[in-house]
Specification:
Among the domains are: about 1-125, Serine Threonine Protein Phosphatase 5, Tetratricopeptide repeat (Alpha Horseshoe), CATH 1.25.40; about 290-380. Helix content is about 65%, strand content about 0%. It is built from 22 helices and no strands. Helix 3 runs antiparallel to helix 4 (about 55-65) and helix 6 (about 90-105) packs across helix 7 (about 105-120). It is rod-shaped. InterPro entries: HcpB-like, Sel1-like, TPR-like_helical_dom_sf. Pfam families: Sel1. It comes from Hyphomonas jannaschiana VP2. This is Beta-lactamase family protein.
Length: about 425
């Protein structure tokens, strides 16, 4: 803080503080003390205790600069660019010093250096150099250069500098503005540039990251809707519904019905999966206990699942226990499986029992209504049927999801599965 007051004192013309002709800080500077070098420069610049000598002041300021004191760089730049005292005015050299200060995170150094580079009245006018300096300052953590660089590269500061428009550069500044300062425009531009599959700047991971920041932190409904569309396209339906609901809550009305549809689908699928888990347990438990007939009966008569029936019957055949299966369950198997190993196993057991129905039940009598009529004749009820194996509800596909290319979907899938905090064990990531 005291160093800043010294810099200010140079421009306000503070008078001599002592009559000594040797700087109190000079010896310390010559032993490698960077702060002492700066104070020595300030004493010579002000004539504080020594004869005023701007050239000698700059010598010591630059020593401080070389040793990592950004105020030394910026003060040298100001003095030289203005030609103060016994200095020869040199705008180019002065701006170089200011740019060094900017790259070291010096706020005023950035403002002055970039001011020269962007002004067509300055001898150091150079628009491309202005962008480079802004990048250096932004990377060093100075806030305004991030915004200036973004304004120039995104839209030429609304057309004032069209030659500076460059989307990759805009992406760089947008990321820095978003990451360092949570700037809404920075996050928005980053999301737009990286999330657009048709743009040369497309990057699935970055696009998803910045769109989620815009949604989760900055409550931008349109970006929530975009995130929801991405998740639906890669079959992450729970997350898709979640972000569509957020889009709706944040004012994006077009997402409301989509959110409701997918919430309904997810709820029905959860109920179906819970039911199927119970059915699998009903089949797996007796199989593990060697109760093969009970397992087949549960698959056919309780679960009504063709998949579970196939699993149970093939396991029973492998165990040599087909005789455990009831005759009516064998008939159901013949009805459900017109061909294949399950049908062959059922036919073989029916033949072994001498029923005379092997190879005909469910095929020769499979004209519309005939198989069920035959079952009614034998058992007095309709033949068991199997379930379709999924929820009957299917939401309309998102337009963006249906149009998105397979390659883009895979990029988004990869991005989702590798992002920090993602459920990498989810089906979509396998």
């Amino acid at each position: 803080m005291f160093r800043k007051w010294l810099v200010l004192g140079i421009w306000l013309g503070f008078g001599s503080l002592a009559s000594a002709q040797v700087s109190a800080s000079e010896n310390a500077c010559n032993t490698g003390d960077a702060e002492a070098c700066f104070y020595t420069g300030a004493e010579y610049a002000q004539g504080s205790g020594v004869a005023e000598d701007k050239q000698k002041a700059v010598t010591y300021f630059l020593k401080a600069c070389d040793m990592g004191v950004p105020d030394g760089c910026s003060t040298s730049g100001i003095l030289v660019s203005l030609g103060e005292g016994n200095l020869e005015k040199d705008v180019f050299k002065g701006v170089d010093y200011l740019e060094r200060a900017c790259g070291m995170g010096h706020v005023d150094g950035c403002s002055r250096a970039i001011g020269h580079r962007i002004s067509d009245t300055s001898p150091a006018f150079d628009l491309q150099k202005a962008v480079e300096v802004a990048k250096a300052g932004c990377a060093a953590g100075v806030e305004n250069p991030c915004y200036w660089g973004l304004d120039w590269s995104w839209d030429g500061k609304k057309g004032e500098y069209p030659s500076l428009i460059d989307m990759p550069t805009a992406g760089w500044f947008a990321e820095e503005a978003c990451n360092q300062f949570h700037d809404m425009m920075g996050c928005d531009v980053a999301a737009r540039l990286y999330a657009d599959p048709d743009a040369a700047t497309f990057d699935a991971e970055k696009g998803l990251t910045y769109s989620m920041i815009r949604c989760d932190e900055q409550k931008a409904g349109a970006h929530c809707r975009n995130v929801g569309g991405v998740y639906l396209s890669i079959e992450e339906y729970e997350l898709g519904a979640l972000y569509m609901r957020r889009a709706c809550d944040f004012g994006h009305a077009d997402a409301c019905q989509t959110a409701t549809d997918w919430e309904t689908y997810n709820r029905e699928m959860a109920e179906y999966e819970a039911k199927m888990a119970a059915y699998r347990q009903m089949v797996d438990t007796p199989l593990s206990q060697g109760r093969y007939g009970d397992a087949v009966s549960a698959a056919i008569n309780s679960a009504g699942s063709k998949d579970l029936a196939e699993k149970a019957i093939l396991a029973t055949r492998s165990a040599g226990r087909m005789s455990d299966i009831s005759t009516n369950d064998l008939y159901a198997a013949a009805l459900w499986f017109p061909t294949g190993p399950v049908r062959a196993a059922a036919d073989a057991e029916l033949a072994a029992r001498g029923t005379g129905l092997e190879g005909t039940f469910g095929t020769g009598t499979n004209a519309p209504g005939m198989a069920d009529a035959r079952w009614r004749e034998l058992y007095g009820t309709s033949a068991p049927s199997y379930s379709s194996g999924s929820s009957s509800f299917k939401p309309a596909p998102m337009k963006s999801a249906s149009q998105i290319s397979a390659e883009t979907r895979e990029k988004y899938r990869w991005a989702h599965c590798t992002m920090k905090g993602s459920n990498t064990s989810a089906t979509v990531c396998q």
